């Protein structure tokens, strides 16, 4: 599956103190006794914190200083990092520094070594686009009421609409992947439901407003996710069901994997294809229709044609189940 792009968060610190900066930097992982203590590394201008999980997933966070303006020479990180209570700490000494840019990146990989440092380097030369102005201002709603503090006021829902739209755009962007369950920024080591992609409704709900809210570029991350899952979906259809076409799994970590066990809920593929069709209806992009939409629809249709059973003149899906009420 193609390596997805994660954001680089930049924090700009400025001071008028002629003595410059002196403080403490800390990379912190919330404590969780179920997992091993993280490892830390530090150098003159960076700190790293990483760990491995039992299932083969690894993460690495790196904090790097950039664009430091020094009036005279002096050390940067004065004391190397340490790992105490899931924390990497270091003292920051920047004599005479008036401006400091701290760039933070985190990379997560399954089965291969993460490399947050590469993303920090890319971020150092990357000029971020004002996505809030470029994308979020394309559509707006205006509802009567005050500032929105009154939950009964229509203006309150206007504020919720704006907040949800911002969170969506901040956790997914063209060239990346769609939003996962808890979003890319959350405080837990092991978030609920593994913070994965649930395609029995959650991914679909996150994307419903993309076309109507004039954010069609944000369909691209979803199509990239589907492209990476085609191989696993084909294996599902062949090995689990002995049928043709594509049977997309209900859950995914975004790594292109298939089912981990037999899953008799086969509604996922139909749900996912609705977004492809809606994108075509909004864009009338014939290249998209012929090269991405129709091939997927054709393969999904083959699976359903094999799976449907005739019953008294009707075609029914059997066996089946609900994702929330599984067959045991």
Average pLDDT number: 79
SSE ordering = EEEEEEEEHHHEHHHEHHEE
- The total strand number stands at 12
Q: Which word captures the global form?
A: globular
Q: Provide the low-confidence segments as ranges.
A: 1-5
Percent range for β-strand residues: 15-25%
The share of residues in helices is 25-40%
List the helices and strands and how they pair.
Layout: E1 8-14, E2 20-28, E3 39-42, E4 46-52, E5 57-66, E6 77-79, E7 87-95, E8 99-110, H1 116-124, H2 131-134, H3 154-170, E9 197-198, H4 202-207, H5 209-212, H6 220-240, E10 251-252, H7 268-283, H8 286-307, E11 308-311, E12 314-317
Antiparallel strand pairs: 1-8, 2-7, 3-4, 4-5, 5-8, 6-7, 9-10, 11-12
Q: What does this 3D model show about the protein?
A:
It is a single chain. The protein is built from eight helices and twelve strands. Strand 11 (308-311) and strand 12 form a beta hairpin. Helix 7 (268-283) packs antiparallel against helix 8. The chain starts with 7 loop residues before the first strand and ends in an 11-residue tail after the last strand. The strands form four sheets. A five-stranded antiparallel sheet has the order 1-8-5-4-3, with helices on one face. Strands 2-7-6 form a three-stranded antiparallel sheet, with no helix packed on it. With 328 residues, the protein is an alpha+beta fold.
